[in-house]
Amino acid sequence: MDLAPLRERDFALLFTAGLISLTGNWVLSVALPLAVLGLTGSPAAVSVVVVASLLGTISAGAVAGVYVDRWDRRRVVVTVNVLQVVALLPLLLVRTADDVWIVVVVAFATQALAQFFQPAENALLPQLVDATRLPAANALNALNNNVARLVGPALGGVIAVAGGLAGAAVLDAATFAVAAVLCGLIRGRHRAEASDNRDLRRELLEGLRAVAHNRIVRAIFVIIAVSSVGEGMMGTLFAVYVTKALHAGGRELGWLMSAQAVGGIIGSLAATRITARFRPVPLITTCWTFFGVVDVIIFNYPRWDTTFWPVLALFVVVGIPVGIHVGAIWTLFQIETPDRLRGRAFSAIWLGASIASVVGAGIAGALGDRIDVLTLLTVQGAGCVVAGLSFRLLAGKGPGSLVRPEPQPKAAEATAH
After folding, report:
1. What is the DSSP secondary structure assignment for residue 368, as one 8-state letter?
2. Are 39 and 97 in contact (CB under 8 A)?
3. Can you tell me the distance from the alpha carbon of 68 to that of 201, in angstroms, rounded to the nearest whole number?
4. 210: which DSSP letter?
5. In this structure, are 71 and 106 located in the same domain?
6. How many angstroms separate the CA atoms of 87 and 263, rounded?
C-alpha cells in the first residue's frame, strides 16, 4: 500500500475531515429512518424522507458545479461543513409524528448542501498532492467511504437506541464542525481560473460540453449512470433479498453491508499501488466486469442454497473491485478535465447518477411484485458487466498511466489566481 499522500499536510487534513464527517453521515443514515418509522409506524413516511433527499440532490446538483468553479474550493468545503451543522440542529426539535416534516426539510437541505461539497472536494484534491501521488490520494479518499461505512452503521444502531434521533443529530453535527476546522487549516487559495463572462446558462453548458466532448469523461458519465440504475434497484430490493431469498433478518443485513465495506477497504489499500501500475481503462473495465459477475453469483446463490456464510464471503469479494476502481476512475476524470471545468463536469456526472438511481428505484418498485427479486437483481448484476465492457469501447485505449510527471498547481501557486 502507498500511504505517501498522507504525508502531505493539506491532503491529510482533507482526508481526516472526510473520514470524520462521513462516519457521522452513516450514523445518521441508520438512526433517521428508524426514528421516523418509530414515530409514525409508516414506511410511507420513511419514503417521503428518501424522496426529499433525492430532490435535494437533483435540484442543487444542477447548478452546484458552476459555483464551485467560481469560488475558492477550500472555502466551499469549509462553508458547507459549517452549514451542515446548522441544517442538522432542527432535528433536536423532533418529538412526535407531527414533527416529521422537520426531518423532511432537513433531509432536503443536507443533501442539497452535499452537492456543493462533493465537486469542491474532487476539484480541490489534485491541488493538494504531487501529480505522481494523485492515484494513491484518490484511492485513500475512497478508503474513507469504506471505513465510514464499516464503522458508521454499527455506531448508528447503538446511538439510535441510546440517544435517539437527537443523539445521532448531535454526533453528526459535531463531525461536521470538526471537519470544518480541519478543512479551514488547509493552506492557500484554491480558486479555478476566473472567467470574465459569468452567465449561469453558459457556464452550465460549458460543464455539459466538458463531459460530452471528451471521450473518456463521457464514458465515465455513462458507466456511472448505468451502475446507478442498478444501485437504485439494489437499494429498493436488498432488504427483500435478505429477508425473503436468504430467510435472514436485520442483523444479517448489517453483516452484509459491513462485509462489502471490508472488501472495499482491502481494495482501496491495494489501489494505492495498483492504480499507478496498470493502464486505467482496462483496469476499470476489469473491476466493473468482475463486480458484475460476482453480483450475478450472489443473487442467484439462493436458488441453490441459503447457507449464509458463503454470501457473506462473496460480499467481501465484491467489495474489492469497488475499492480499486473508485480511485482509478476519479483520477482519470481529474487528469482529463481542466481545473476550471472540474466542478461543473463532476456535478453533471453526479446529477446523471442521481437521476439514474431514481429510475432504478422506480423500476424495482414497479416490477417488484411481478418479477421475483432474484431475477431483477440478476439483471442489475448483468448490467454492471455490460457497463464494464461498454466502458472499454466508449473510452478507447485511454492513457498509458494515471501518473502525471508534471507538477500540479500547489497551494503557493494557487494563491496567484
Report:
1. T
2. yes
3. 15
4. H
5. yes
6. 33
Q: Do residues 169 and 118 share a domain? A: yes
Predicted TM-score (pTM) of this structure: 0.81
Which three three-digit cell numbers place residue 345?
463536469
Q: Tens of pLDDT along 122-172?
A: 888 888 888 888 888 888 888 888 888 888 777 776 776 677 788 889 999
From 190, 214, 233, the end of a domain falls on 190
Beta bridge partners of 72: 191
- Domain membership of residue 285 (yes or no) is yes
Alpha carbon distances (Å) from 398 to 48, 134, 326, 332, 344: 42, 17, 17, 9, 22
Residue that finishes a domain, picked among 190, 223, 245: 190
Residue numbers of the domain that contains 92 = 1-190
pLDDT digits (tens, 9 = 90+) for 368-398: 778 888 999 999 899 899 999 999 999 988 8
Same domain, residue pair 185 and 211:
no
Q: What angle in degrees, to the nearest 10, is found between the helix axes of 342-367 and 100-124?
A: 140
Stated as kind and residue range, the H or E segment containing 184 is helix 164-184
166/280 Cα distance (integer angstroms): 44
Q: Looking at the structure, do residues 3 and 51 belong to the same domain, yes or no?
A: yes
Burial of residue 202 (number of CB atoms within 10 Å: 0-12, 13-18, 19+) = exposed
Domain annotation covers residue 182: yes
CA distances from 119 to 123, 188, 264 (A): 6, 19, 22
d(CA 359, CA 233): 8
- 134 found inside a domain: yes
What is the DSSP track for 253-298?
Answer: HHHHHHHHHHHHHHHHHHHHHHHHHS-HHHHHHHHHHHHHHHHHHH
Q: Radius of gyration over alpha carbons of the chain, in Å?
A: 21
End-to-end CA distance of the chain: 35
